[in-house]
């Protein structure tokens, strides 16, 4: 199970906190008071419930009164990925479990996810801090058994408590030499009342007969019960025999086979001894072969038969030997040159022209011309595009102005009207004043009625003229403003037309430049075609012309290099040929396969020829030494062969193959005997004796059926006796009614009944305690040795081999050092005690991992460790993360170097 996400709604100092993507080995780093222990307590609370107010564990409710609780996301659980949410509600909180398929469950399903484990056991094994590592010296065998039992069955901690309660209850009910226990006191009361009751019973004869009959039937009932018990025991024995029958059959077959086997005379460690002798024999034979070869070579050296040849050709041989080194160097140079020539000629294509610097310059010039044309073409096209866009914008402005502009005819007409109005602006007022003055003159001259009428009429005319002249003035102003506006528009229009002329001129210039560029492009293409024609490339130039020319250049340069190397090769070949001719003219007395062998023969022969006289004495001395060594090796070889023959004789075989077959047969017989011993350990002698009385398994089954039938008849007879006893008890009860006798009898049976009830209670308690102890013992016997063995391995690793064993002695934990010295935990250093406690924890985790694959949570548990201990601990935790997720809280900077940045979460 892995915790992949922690979401705290409200817990202690944390509120609305989220920790996602928690890895298999997650380090949560934070200073003191950062909230590390609070997160650890939050995990405990979500999995096992909020602490109640009666517990000593703080509840960590938010101080601001906000929401309380949160959720954990768990993966790799028996239910897959689940989210466990616990919020404030009842005392331990309200739990909701969200499955991956959308289903929701309550707290009753939590045990299916984390297993049958309580908070105390989880904190004792999987979750701890520095304080939890300091009490190892207090552990005894009882604590070991408690945790092993606690992880072995459901409600196991309650079993331990129940065992203690039952033991106290037994001691309170009865003690063999006690007075105060209830059964001891009740026994005294029963004895006293029985004496009084027996004295009263003697007064009634019939009563005595009934009692005699009752006792006889009780005796018969007891007899039947004993017989019934014996039959049940025999049935249990038969069932056991049926289960052991296959083992008995195998034991019987092996026993019969063992009787037929004869005692083997095979020597001990025979195969190993034979292989050792074979190896020694092979070594001596190899030495023998080598010495014989050396002897043969020495004999051959004494018989040199080519003395005349070397004496006649000593000078030529000396020259050939001395110049052979130069010949080899030339051979190497020749091979190297041939390889280079072959390398250049392998992929090279023959080119009609030799590549020159002029061709390089020409190609460079064509490339520069190509780049220049492309750049100029790009610049002209860009300028032409921008100029055309400007032309379109000006044309749009002209079109817009022309929609609001008068045509030339209307403009000229309006212009003439404006000019005429400006010349006669005071005509009507002057005429009016003149008319009025003429009328006044007529009135002054004639001074008659009609002259008054003339003056009146003249005044009217003057007034009219004055009024009409004033009313026409506003209309004239509007016409002038409209004309001025049109005149401004026309000036702007003319200016735009001038700009259009300039842009048209620029476009013409750009088109002319484009034509020149096209001509330059044609010149570039012509020059490129000429280059291809010069190089005799039978293709038209395209965009990849440069790659084709480069390929042509590479092939041409390879051909040139091959030609130059060929020129160097020719003088070397002539010298080699000359040397070979001189060597062939020399009539060598052997037939060598190559020049090296011939030169080797000449060198050795010449050396021998020159040193022949001085070597003879040395060869004789060496021959004597080799002969002595050869005789010694032959003697050793004979001894080895004799030892091997003795070994075969001990096994009573003729050759090595028969010896190996005998070894296999002895090994097989040994396996049979070991199996027979194992079967005899499983079959006790009384069981073998009982099984030998039956010829087949069916006979046992038949006897089992017979006993079951007999048991049925006994049970039927017991029922009849029980009915008869009931009738006699009724008659006795009738006789016992009334008087002192009845009171004494009632008192006796009352006290006896109380005693029986107490005895039954004691028996039930004792039986329950025995069953409970047997259950705990069976659970502990398989786990305790395994746990101690694993703890020893972990402690040995953590202490770098300084301590080799963890065991229980005198009901306490002890450890053994590599010097075989025992120590109690309190005798160890603080850091070593903590290592011991960690080793025991990890051993417990390994033992219960199958049933409880829970994460390990550590809160700064290694503060007393030095650097070496810390490295070993971190290596162990790194290995553990593959089986258990590890969440490590720490405030120490130095621990961060053991982890990658992805595995560290800083609070």
Automatic annotation (TrEMBL):
The chain crosses the membrane at residues 426-444, 449-467. The keyword Repeat does not apply. Residues 1-204 form the YhaN AAA domain. InterPro entries: P-loop_NTPase (IPR027417), YhaN_AAA (IPR038734). Keywords: Coiled coil, Membrane, Transmembrane, Transmembrane helix. The keyword rRNA processing does not apply. Residues 197-234, 274-301, 359-404 form a coiled coil. This is AAA family ATPase. It comes from Listeria innocua.
């Amino acid at each position: 199970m892995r915790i992949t996400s922690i979401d705290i709604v409200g817990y202690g100092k944390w509120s609305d906190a989220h920790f996602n993507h928690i890895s298999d080995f997650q380090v949560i780093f934070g200073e003191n008071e950062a909230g590390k222990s609070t997160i650890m307590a939050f995990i405990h609370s979500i999995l096992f419930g909020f602490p109640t107010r009666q517990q000593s564990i703080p509840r960590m409710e938010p101080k601001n009164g906000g929401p309380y609780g949160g959720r954990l996301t768990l993966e790799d659980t028996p239910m897959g990925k689940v989210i466990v949410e616990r919020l404030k509600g009842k005392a331990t909180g309200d739990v909701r479990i969200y499955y991956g398929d959308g289903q929701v469950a309550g707290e009753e399903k939590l045990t299916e996810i984390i297993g049958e484990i309580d908070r105390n056991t989880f904190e004792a094994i999987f979750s701890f801090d520095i304080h939890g590592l300091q009490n190892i010296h207090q552990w005894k065998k009882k604590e070991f058994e408690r945790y092993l039992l606690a992880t072995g069955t459901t409600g196991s901690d309650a079993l331990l408590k129940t065992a203690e309660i039952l033991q106290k209850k037994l001691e309170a009910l009865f003690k063999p030499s006690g007075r105060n226990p209830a059964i001891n006191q009740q026994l005294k009361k029963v004895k006293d009342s029985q004496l009084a009751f027996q004295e009263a019973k003697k007064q009634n004869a019939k009563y005595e007969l009934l009692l005699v009959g009752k006792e006889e039937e009780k005796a018969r009932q007891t007899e039947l019960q004993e017989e019934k018990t014996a039959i049940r025991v025999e049935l249990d024995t038969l069932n056991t025999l049926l289960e052991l029958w296959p083992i008995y059959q195998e034991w019987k077959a092996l026993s019969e086979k063992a009787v037929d086997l004869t005692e083997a005379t095979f020597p001990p460690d025979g195969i190993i001894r034979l292989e050792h002798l074979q190896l020694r024999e092979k070594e001596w034979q190899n030495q023998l072969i080598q010495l014989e070869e050396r002897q043969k070579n020495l004999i051959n050296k004494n018989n040199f038969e080519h003395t005349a040849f070397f004496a006649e050709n000593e000078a030529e041989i000396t020259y050939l030997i001395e110049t052979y080194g130069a010949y080899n160097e030339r051979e190497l140079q020749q091979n190297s040159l041939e390889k280079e020539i072959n390398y250049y000629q392998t992929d090279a294509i023959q080119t009609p022209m030799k590549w020159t610097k002029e061709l390089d310059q020409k190609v460079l010039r064509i490339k520069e011309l190509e780049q220049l044309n492309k750049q100029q073409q790009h610049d002209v096209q860009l300028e032409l595009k921008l100029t055309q866009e400007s032309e379109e914008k000006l044309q749009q402005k002209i079109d817009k102005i022309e929609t609001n502009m008068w045509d030339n005819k209307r403009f000229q007409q309006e212009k003439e009207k404006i000019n005429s109005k400006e010349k006669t602006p005071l005509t009507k007022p002057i005429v009016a004043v003149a008319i009025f003055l003429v009328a006044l003159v007529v009135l002054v001259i004639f001074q008659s009625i009609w002259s008054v009428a003339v003056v009146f009429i003249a005044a009217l005319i003057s007034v009219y003229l004055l009024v009409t002249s004033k009313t026409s003035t506003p209309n004239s102003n509007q016409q002038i403003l409209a004309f001025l506006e049109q005149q401004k528009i026309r000036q702007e229009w003319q200016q735009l037309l001038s700009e259009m002329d300039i842009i048209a001129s620029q476009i013409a210039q750009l088109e002319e430049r484009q034509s020149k560029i096209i001509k330059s492009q044609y010149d570039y293409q012509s020059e490129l075609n000429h280059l291809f024609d010069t190089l005799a490339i039978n293709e038209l130039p395209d965009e990849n012309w440069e790659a084709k020319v480069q390929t042509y250049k590479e092939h041409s340069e390879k051909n040139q290099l091959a030609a130059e190397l060929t020129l160097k090769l020719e003088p070397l070949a002539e010298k080699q040929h000359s040397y070979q001719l001189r060597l062939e003219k020399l009539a060598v007395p052997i037939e060598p396969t190559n020049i090296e062998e011939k030169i080797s023969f000449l060198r050795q022969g010449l050396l021998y020829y020159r040193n022949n006289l001085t070597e003879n004495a040395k060869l004789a001395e060496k021959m004597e030494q080799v002969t002595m060594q050869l005789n010694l090796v032959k003697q050793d070889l004979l001894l080895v062969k004799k030892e091997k023959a003795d070994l075969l004789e001990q096994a009573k075989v003729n050759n090595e193959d028969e010896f190996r077959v005998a070894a296999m047969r002895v090994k097989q017989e040994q396996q049979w005997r070991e199996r027979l011993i194992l079967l005899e350990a499983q079959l006790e002698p009384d069981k073998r004796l009982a099984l030998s009385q039956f010829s087949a398994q069916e006979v046992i089954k038949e006897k089992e059926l017979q006993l079951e039938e007999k048991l049925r008849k006994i049970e039927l007879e017991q029922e009849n006796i029980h009915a008869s006893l009931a009738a006699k008890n009724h008659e006795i009860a009738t006789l016992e009614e009334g008087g002192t006798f009845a009171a004494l009898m009632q008192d006796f049976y009352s006290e006896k009944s109380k005693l029986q009830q107490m005895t039954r209670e004691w028996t039930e308690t004792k039986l329950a305690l025995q069953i409970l102890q047997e259950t705990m013992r069976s659970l502990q016997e398989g786990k305790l040795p395994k746990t101690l063995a694993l703890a020893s391995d972990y402690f040995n690793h953590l202490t770098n081999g300084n301590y080799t064993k963890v065991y229980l002695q005198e009901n306490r934990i002890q450890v053994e050092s590599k010097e075989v010295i025992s120590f109690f935990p309190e005798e160890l250093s603080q850091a070593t005690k903590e290592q011991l406690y960690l080793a025991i924890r990890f051993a417990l985790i390994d033992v219960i991992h199958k049933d409880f694959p829970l994460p390990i949570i550590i809160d700064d548990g290694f503060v007393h460790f030095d650097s070496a201990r810390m490295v070993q601990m971190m290596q162990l935790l790194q290995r553990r993360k593959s089986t258990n997720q590890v969440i490590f809280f720490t405030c120490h900077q130095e621990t961060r170097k053991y982890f990658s940045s992805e595995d560290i979460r800083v609070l």
